[in-house]
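Quick start: read one record
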Amino acid sequence: QVQLVESGGGLVQPGGSLRLSCAVSGFTLDNYTIGWFRQAPGKEREGVSCISSRGGFRSYGDSVKGRFTISRDNAKNTVYLQMNSLKPEDTAVYYCAAARGSSWCRRSPGDYDYWGQGTQVTVSS
């Protein structure tokens, strides 16, 4: 059974940092591209970042470029999203998702087959 479980969300002040984790089971992580997405109330799901199956290609949305870093540890079946310099507009539910492996990735939700349940990130003073 394929599962993706996000963790690491919470409440943080503007300028602070969080590291999200996406733990996967039921499949071999190094055969899959992983994406991070977020959705704020009343807004469409947004592609935040993605990483190719072996980690050689990474993509970031313009709103997070230079602040967020995606990484993966295939031996631990885990993908991370390090979020620095957080802003109130980063507040959303964050999801990780998996797609069949490739040497590149896209931040399009329709490309992904499996999704986690999401973790809430709230940036507020």
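The chain has a mean pLDDT of 95.
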